[in-house]
Q: What sequence folds into this?
């Protein structure tokens, strides 16, 4: 029976799912192609719908528990707040891009943009004014409501306070009287002690009562008034947009590159004309000096780039770049050394103590060691030939490679080298005796034996090791970046933790997901590679 | 002087304190272009014998000689076909054979190489599977690839180590015919190891039984004088075949019995004692009148 074109497409998709490890979506594809719908639907319910509801349940538990746990940084953010923070980070990145465009715009385009932004700014300003009023009214409403609720309690509180003040005064007088009697020898000392003690107890009780009322008032004050919250939220949003428009105006006008250049140029031209008509030698010298300075500033402006704020996308890109630098360093060392270990028992015996001792060392320790040891190669990072060369390269120049990145990459390499090394050694040493016999019968030379028999046979295990290495490297990297302040996701969370804005907690949780998803994708990538080099067509664990 | 000979060969494994002698004083001489079948029970050291012939192992005592010179190391002159195929799983059928041919005939041009490989693939009728990987092939096909690889090296001696033992009966018959056809087309010396009397009788010029290990050695040989080509279909009606098969089988089974009898019986007969039963006898039947 000839396979139809449709079947061919189907099997291609299924194969792709199999290789990439997404076999759970297998029944969906089969269902789309109309294969045994009953069976596929069952499989979809079992392996997709139920897990989906499980994840939903987890999200629900998170949403429910989050606000009930009060921390120093506020409530635990719920999923929607985390999502909001992701959207905000995205907006920040978008705005940076727009600002950069504005900075570089020239001529007619600049003027058109300037006119449009001015108009928008005016509209937004009106809106801000309106919303500000709304907020004010809502605040007034809230204050009124509060006053109504708090009034009686406050009255009660004040009355009690006055009463207790009197009572305390009375008690103090009583104690004074007793102490005088004691001094005169008329009364017992014990009665004085008892009176003082009673006074203490009574004061504490009064204080407790008052503070209970006070906390009642505070409770009412801290209650959220929904209209006010909403008004504030919409106000913040518009005010934020208005502020952005204001910055855009600046970048289109005063801080625009061409505007600044024109200004500097006209200044220079002015000096030049002045210089031509200078009256005295002293004046000429003064003007010429100014002209030279103006010239320098024109030169400087010409090479100027937009100083973009660090966005989450930039941090993510830099993290991925760093992990791959570290990973390739690790692979570059681990594979040859692993092959040598697998081939030669003496070599293996020599390396075993080193592997055993250094494998469990924490990445933090490695980072510190690298900062000192590798740091010695970068005494003057600004003028380092290698760093300058790397930062001139077309694709990676925007990542701004600095020593901190290199330390992080070295730490990643140091921690990622072990799994790859051990697995390569294992793969090489556990080569099938039959294959060795084939090599012996064919009388293959050392290099032929290595490249035709040993390496191909060890390749699946080598890639299994590399997969573990990349996973370890990615985990280590975040910690290394946080500690070495190398721009990246690690530094992003660390900065968030240190800065403490209202979005701190949500941002940290967002990074948790970003790191997780990227780690997952990296792992999948390695699985696919591993599947391509494994010759037995066997599956790999997820 | 024989073409390939084993002269008082002994080999054993393990440290001196716990040594197992596998083969003791094995003598075998194979003439040029002769087809010899070595037959024996599993575990009797057949594969070790083959490793010695191929030079993959050196004997502890005695010598293995080809053309009168001692075999020191394995090489393509002694083409061994392994029991478990030993194909390289990351190479295609073509790649597996090509690797061997390239090594043995380094002076081949690319087109000569291709022609040579394809010739041998065709010989084992696997041309359609030329670009397949071993794991995509059936056991019989893999075995044929292994055979093609060994033949493509043009070895002086073909050593077949239970080449067909892992196959089902039908595939086995096909491959037996194929091996015989190839051998007849392209005469050379063959030593085949097998545990199947029918197979040995059908294919070989001479059957040499291996006694039961440890310390196995070769027993009295049985020459097969049947005319070639031997017709598989009528074999069971051939009196000579039946007679030979029976005598080999009887010898092998007898050897097995003998070895069982030789084994020292370490079991101690215990007296048959039963504990005294204090329970009242249970009623087993009720007679109803």
A:
């Amino acid at each position: 029976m000839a396979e139809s074109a449709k079947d061919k497409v189907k099997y291609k998709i299924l194969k792709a799912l199999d290789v990439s490890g997404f076999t759970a979506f297998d029944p969906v594809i089969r269902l789309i192609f109309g294969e045994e719908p009953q069976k596929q639907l069952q499989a979809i319910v079992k392996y997709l719908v139920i897990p989906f509801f499980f994840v939903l349940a987890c999200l629900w538990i998170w949403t429910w528990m989050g606000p009930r746990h009060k921390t120093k940084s506020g409530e635990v953010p719920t999923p929607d707040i985390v999502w909001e923070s992701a959207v905000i980070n995205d907006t920040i990145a978008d705005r940076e891009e727009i600002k950069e465009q504005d900075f570089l715009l020239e001529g007619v385009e600049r003027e058109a943009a300037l006119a449009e932004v001015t108009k928008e700014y005016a509209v937004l300003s009106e809106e801000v004014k309106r919303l500000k009023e709304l907020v004010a009214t809502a605040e007034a409403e809230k204050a009124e409501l509060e006053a109504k609720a708090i009034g009686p309690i406050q009255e009660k509180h004040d009355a009690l306070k006055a009463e207790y003040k009197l009572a305390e005064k009375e008690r103090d007088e009583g104690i004074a009287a007793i102490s005088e009697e004691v001094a005169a020898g008329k009364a017992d000392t014990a009665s004085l002690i008892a009176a003082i003690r009673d006074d203490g107890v009574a004061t504490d009780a009064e204080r407790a009562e008052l503070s209970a009322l006070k906390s009642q008032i505070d409770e009412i004050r801290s209650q959220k008034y929904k209209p006010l919250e909403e008004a504030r939220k919409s106000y913040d949003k518009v005010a934020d947009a208005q502020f952005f428009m204001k910055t855009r105006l600046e970048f289109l006008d005063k801080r625009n590159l061409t505007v600044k250049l024109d200004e500097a140029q006209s200044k220079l031209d002015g000096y030049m004309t002045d210089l031509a008509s200078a009256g005295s030698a002293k004046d000429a010298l003064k003007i010429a000096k100014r002209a030279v300075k103006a010239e320098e500033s024109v030169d400087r402006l010409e090479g100027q780039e937009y100083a973009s704020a660090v966005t989450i996308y930039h941090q993510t890109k830099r993290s991925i770049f760093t992990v791959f630098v570290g990973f390739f360093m690790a692979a570059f060392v681990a594979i040859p050394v692993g092959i040598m270990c697998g081939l030669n028992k003496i070599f293996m015996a020599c390396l075993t103590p080193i592997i055993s001792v250094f494998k469990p060392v924490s990445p933090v320790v490695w980072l510190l060691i690298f900062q000192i040891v590798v740091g010695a190669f970068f005494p003057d990072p600004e003028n380092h030939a290698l760093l300058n060369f790397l930062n001139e390269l077309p694709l990676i120049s925007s990542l701004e490679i600095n020593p901190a990145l290199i330390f992080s990459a070295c730490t990643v390499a140091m921690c990622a080298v072990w799994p790859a090394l051990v697995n390569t050694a294992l793969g090489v040493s556990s080569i099938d005796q039959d294959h060795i016999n084939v090599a012996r019968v064919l009388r293959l030379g050392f290099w032929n034996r290595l490249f035709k028999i040993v390496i191909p046979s060890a390749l699946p295990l080598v890639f299994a090791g590399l997969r573990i290495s990349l996973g370890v490297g990615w985990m280590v990297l975040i910690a290394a970046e946080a500690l070495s302040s190398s721009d990246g996701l690690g530094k992003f969370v660390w900065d968030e933790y240190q800065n403490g804005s209202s979005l701190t907690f949500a941002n940290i949780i967002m990074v948790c997901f970003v790191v997780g998803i990227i780690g997952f994708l990296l792992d999948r990538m390695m699985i696919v590679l591993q599947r391509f080099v494994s010759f037995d067509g066997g599956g790999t664990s997820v | 002087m024989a073409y390939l000979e084993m002269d008082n060969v002994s080999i054993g494994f393990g440290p001196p304190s716990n040594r197992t002698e596998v083969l003791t004083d094995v003598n075998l001489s194979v003439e040029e272009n002769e087809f010899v079948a070595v037959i024996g029970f599993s575990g009797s050291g057949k594969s070790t014998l083959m490793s010695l012939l191929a030079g993959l192992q050196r004997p502890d005592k005695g010598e293995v000689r080809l053309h009168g010179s001692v075999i020191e190391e394995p090489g393509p002159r002694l083409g061994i076909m392994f029991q478990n195929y030993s194909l390289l799983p990351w190479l295609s059928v073509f790649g597996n054979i090509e690797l061997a041919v390239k090594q043995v005939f380094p002076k081949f041009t690319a087109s000569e190489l291709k022609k040579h490989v394809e010739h041998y693939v065709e010989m084992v009728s696997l041309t359609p599977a030329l670009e397949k990987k071993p794991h995509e092939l059936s056991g019989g096909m893999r075995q044929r690839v292994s055979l093609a690889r060994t033949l493509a090296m043009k070895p002086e001696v073909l050593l077949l180590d239970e080449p067909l033992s892992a196959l089902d009966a039908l595939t086995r018959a096909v491959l037996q015919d194929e091996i015989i056809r190839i051998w007849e087309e392209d005469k050379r010396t063959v030593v085949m190891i097998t545990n199947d009397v029918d197979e040995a009788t059908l294919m070989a010029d001479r059957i040499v039984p291996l006694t039961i290990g440890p310390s196995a050695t070769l027993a009295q040989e049985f020459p097969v004088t049947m005319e070639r080509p031997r017709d598989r279909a009528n074999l069971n009606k051939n009196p000579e075949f039946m007679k030979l098969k029976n005598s080999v089988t009887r010898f092998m089974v007898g050897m097995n019995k003998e070895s069982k009898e030789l084994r020292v019986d370490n079991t101690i007969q215990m007296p048959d004692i039963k504990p005294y039963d204090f329970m009242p006898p249970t009623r087993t039947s009720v007679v109803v009148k």
